[in-house]
């Protein structure tokens, strides 16, 4: 029988951590959520509350389910608060040194049998696992954005991930009513290995002046039937995350076809990270998004 998971910790209260806490609480798991910035936890709880209210208004969940789910989520002030968790999911900024530092601080607080997962979009699960005290209990559980809406979760085993960890993670994801795609531990796994080079190419198309933001997004929405244009999607994912994934692909696969577009680098350097900072390939500060090029 797979190890039973009841209490879940989430580290990183950004857009993905909030979404993960949201779906776990609705599936009746007890959830603790932590962030290095205390105000992000507050903001995250407000976002979850608002998103659940939207689900109630769309009759996707009942008001009773919303109330019960909100009761399941508690803020975690420090790593010690994760001492009674069966599973902790790290969903902090996509930077290897940040994730490693979190694991170093977190591991001494965890129960020896607790599973540690990362929601990384691209980094090596094997390498991250090796920086913890529990490589056999470490796994990639990669959610898609926005978590409450997207059906898929990628499961990625590192070289040392044990069968028990894999089976328990599979059972956990099943309880969230998500479908699993198993990926081998290669840079950016399956979805982002295919999706991010497409987005990067759209940014090159903009950079080289083939089309402007509006033309590129319209072309891919109406010409390829994508629900969102690639530049709109890049803003939604976060341009810092897009750049990190391209850097991991470029370095990890040593192929120049993954070279991050210099325009993407420039936007990130400007702090124009997309929706989360109100400006990216679109400016979101007004009533409706306005292309920035
Ligand atoms: N954005 C996406 O579409 C998407 C999809 C799937 C997976 N991911 C992955 O999820 C993770 C989070 O991405 P996001 O989009 O939520 O980013 P985000 O910028 O919205 O949130 C990241 C959060 O991590 C926090 N953080 C940074 N350092 C920390 C630390 N030392 N301890 C605790 N918290 C810390 C930040 O304060 C921030 O609140 C990344 O690994 C990313 O690759 C992102």
Largest sheet: 8 strands, mixed
* Gyration radius over CA: 19 Å
Spatial gap, N to C terminus:
55 Å
* Second-tier CATH architecture of the largest domain: 3-Layer(aba) Sandwich
Mean pLDDT: 97
Protein name: 3-hydroxybutyryl-CoA dehydrogenase
Keywords: NAD, Oxidoreductase
Domain 3-hydroxyacyl-CoA dehydrogenase NAD binding: 7-184
InterPro entries: 3-OHacyl-CoA_DH, 3-OHacyl-CoA_DH_CS, 3-OHacyl-CoA_DH_NAD-bd, 3HC_DH_C, 6-PGluconate_DH-like_C_sf, 6PGD_dom2, NAD(P)-bd_dom_sf
Give a description of the structure.
With 293 residues, the protein is of the alpha/beta class. It has two domains: 7-184, 3-Layer(aba) Sandwich (Rossmann fold), CATH 3.40.50; 191-291, Orthogonal Bundle (N-(1-d-carboxylethyl)-l-norvaline Dehydrogenase, domain 2). The chain contains eleven helices and ten strands. The chain has helices spanning 15-26, 38-57, 63-72, 96-106, 125-130, 163-175, 191-207, 213-223, 230-237, 239-253, 262-269; strands at residues 7-11, 30-34, 73-75, 87-90, 115-118, 138-143, 152-157, 179-183, 282-283, 290-291. The strands form two sheets. The chain has an eight-stranded mixed beta sheet. A two-stranded antiparallel sheet has the order 9-10. The protein is globular, with a radius of gyration of 19 Å. The N and C termini lie far apart (55 Å). Bound molecules: nicotinamide-adenine-dinucleotide. Residues 7-184 form the 3-hydroxyacyl-CoA dehydrogenase NAD binding domain. This is 3-hydroxybutyryl-CoA dehydrogenase. InterPro entries: 3-OHacyl-CoA_DH (IPR022694), 3-OHacyl-CoA_DH_CS (IPR006180), 3-OHacyl-CoA_DH_NAD-bd (IPR006176), 3HC_DH_C (IPR006108), 6-PGluconate_DH-like_C_sf (IPR008927), 6PGD_dom2 (IPR013328), NAD(P)-bd_dom_sf (IPR036291). It comes from Pseudorhodoplanes sinuspersici. Pfam families: 3HCDH, 3HCDH_N.
């Amino acid at each position: 029988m797979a190890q039973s998971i009841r209490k879940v910790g989430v580290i990183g209260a950004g857009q993905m951590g909030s979404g993960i806490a949201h779906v776990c609480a609705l599936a009746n798991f007890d959830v603790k959520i932590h962030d290095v910035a205390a105000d992000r936890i507050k903001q995250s709880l407000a976002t979850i509350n608002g998103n659940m209210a939207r689900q109630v208004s769309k009759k996707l969940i009942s008001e009773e389910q919303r109330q019960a789910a909100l009761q399941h989520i508690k803020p975690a002030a420090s790593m010690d608060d994760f001492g009674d968790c069966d599973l902790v999911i790290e969903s902090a900024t996509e930077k290897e040194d940040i994730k490693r530092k979190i694991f170093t601080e977190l591991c001494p607080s965890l129960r020896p049998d607790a599973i540690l997962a990362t929601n990384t979009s691209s980094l090596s699960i094997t390498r991250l696992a090796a920086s913890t005290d529990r490589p056999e209990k470490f796994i990639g559980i990669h959610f898609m954005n926005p978590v409450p809406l997207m059906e898929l979760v990628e499961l990625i085993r590192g070289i040392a991930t044990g069968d028990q960890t894999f089976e328990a993670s599979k059972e956990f994801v099943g309880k969230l009513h998500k479908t699993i795609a198993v990926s081998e531990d290669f840079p950016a796994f399956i979805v982002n290995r295919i999706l991010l080079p497409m987005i990067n190419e759209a940014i090159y198309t903009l950079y080289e002046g083939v089309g402007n933001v509006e033309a590129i997004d319209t072309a891919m929405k109406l010409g390829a039937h994508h629900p969102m244009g690639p530049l709109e999607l890049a803003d939604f994912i976060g341009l810092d995350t897009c750049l990190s994934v391209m850097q991991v692909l470029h370095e990890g696969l040593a192929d120049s076809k993954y070279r991050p577009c210099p325009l993407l680098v420039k936007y990130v350097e400007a702090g124009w990270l997309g929706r989360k900072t109100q400006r990216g390939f679109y400016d979101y500060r007004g009533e409706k998004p306005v292309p920035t090029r």
